Amino acid sequence: MVFTTVFFAVFAWFREQVCTTVCPYGRLQGVLLDKKSVVVAYDKVRGEHRGSFRKDEDRAEKGKGDCIDCGLCLHVCPTGIDIRNGTQLECVSCTLCMDACDSMMDKVGLEKGLIRYDSEEGISTGTKWKLSARAKAYIVLMFAIVGLLVALILNRSEIEMNVLGLRGTTYTKVNDSTIVNIFKATLLNKTNEDHELTLSVLSDNASLEVVGGPIHIEKGKRVERQLLIKMHTKYIRSSITPVNIGLSMDGELIEEEEVNFSGPGF
Ligand code: SF4
Ligand code: SF4
C-alpha angle with apex 148: 142 to 151, nearest 5 degrees? Predict the structure, then answer.
């Protein structure tokens, strides 16, 4: 409901104000662009000096460029800018000005592409666009980020486990040879199915009991359980002893976590 309301307001009311004031793309443009970046650009070399169109007039002779100053590019621009003043952060690269100018060029019989995709350097020098070192660096960076995203998605655990010592508790001496710690396990089911989960100690220095018995977790739900971890004093060499806890789903080990078992230390 929140997203629907926000997007309705964006499209129905705020419109281009979001592009110019909220959207980070325009802000990033200034940082990412250089003279070799391809943008929606007005060919000022060919277009200037702009001047109105007159049939059968030799524009070059009159010192006029190809821009007939019809204002159509300005009229269609959703953010209300004049692309003839150069790249501006308000430009959302919608290319409406390109289409409008091309249609006008068609009507007056001049060559299309007065507003086109080109770089500032390309327009000033008339050279063809080449992949710059900066563009290559961005491509490498983009592939690295996409690769990282794919790796994170592929390695995303189905069940998230977090085991912490129960707040306000320390170790309890059950008898001369056994120490108990209480932990709290928080389990989150990120799948769309219900599962049976089992918690166990993987290291051979302790045993574990889940308060409340076997864990059944419904799809998309979070479950919290207290764990009693017991350790024989012969394994306790300092005030903290690491214990490996394993989480199995439907009989298969899917997660491991190391917790610190508190003891008296010897
Ligand atoms: S590309 Fe779109 S936003 Fe940019 S100047 Fe042209 S019409 Fe305006
Ligand atoms: S639409 Fe083309 S010809 Fe018309 S003012 Fe814009 S740049 Fe000039």
Answer: 140
